């Protein structure tokens, strides 16, 4: 009887020890996975509305995933930002109001408490064609048109788990335009097609790839406040091309706020500003010029943070 009790006690102690070891292993894991997913909707319905207007409905889906590895002096930060949205106005066809694919992978080796020697790989593109008009007739972008790849080497400052500031004096950037039509137009900075001045016949096709070498600065802040009710995600990206017009700095700023109104209802506001000298807008007079691009959104929907 005592032998049986001893065996049972030994098994209990062994199980408790194993469970404690498993718990410690989980707590000591260098990997951390977080993310946000949201569905946002807007609707306007009018009937005999004297001030005028059109019926509209819109929605967008966004996903932001982050996988962070941190152990000893090594840090590996990976983020994937996906978004797609559609708008329907009156009898017009569905048009996009959001389309993005952004992937960043950054590896750093710690040299001081908050400073890392770091390498950053970035990829950015979109899912579907984009059009200038609301009739889907004038195409100005497409899937993999553009498609940006960049590799940057520099220093990364991380005073805490929410803010990071990365500066690279050596950044290589590739722009790829898959669509031959857009490449022939010289979209997104690639070399355009050439034509005979008299016959207008095409002499050379537009190129699909453009290479740049420059400096890159990336600032990012991610945090949640008020017991996770308010989420803040902000980023600023600057790039200057040493090889051509270095004074024309490309700027991308993004600010996203989400506030949990109820357990199932979240208010979301987003502001995106873009200036890129290689992304031209055709004016009414036919001239192509670079301009500040602005996108703002406010809506209610479902959101999940993990």
Could you characterize what this model shows?
This protein is mainly beta and 306 residues long. It has 2 helices and 18 strands. It has helices at 2-27, 180-184, and strands at residues 31-44, 56-71, 74-89, 95-110, 115-125, 130-131, 139-141, 147-157, 163-176, 194-195, 202-204, 209-225, 230-241, 250-260, 266-275, 280-282, 288-290, 293-305. The strands form 4 sheets. It has a 12-stranded antiparallel beta barrel. Strands 6-7 form a two-stranded antiparallel ribbon.
- Helical content, roughly? 10-25%
* Widest sheet, order of strands: 1-2-3-4-5-8-9-12-13-14-15-18
Please state roughly what percent of the residues sit in beta strands, choosing from under 5%, 5-15%, 15-25%, 25-35%, 35-45% or over 45%: over 45%
Query: Sheet with the most strands?
Result: 12 strands, antiparallel, barrel
Write down the overall geometry.
flat
Number of strands: 18
**Global Rg:** 25 Å
Distance between the termini: 50 Å
Count of helical regions:
2
- Regions with pLDDT < 50 over 5+ consecutive residues? 1-14
Order of helices and strands: HEEEEEEEEEHEEEEEEEEE
Average pLDDT: 88
Assembly type of the chains comes to single chain
What structural category characterises the helix and strand content? mainly beta
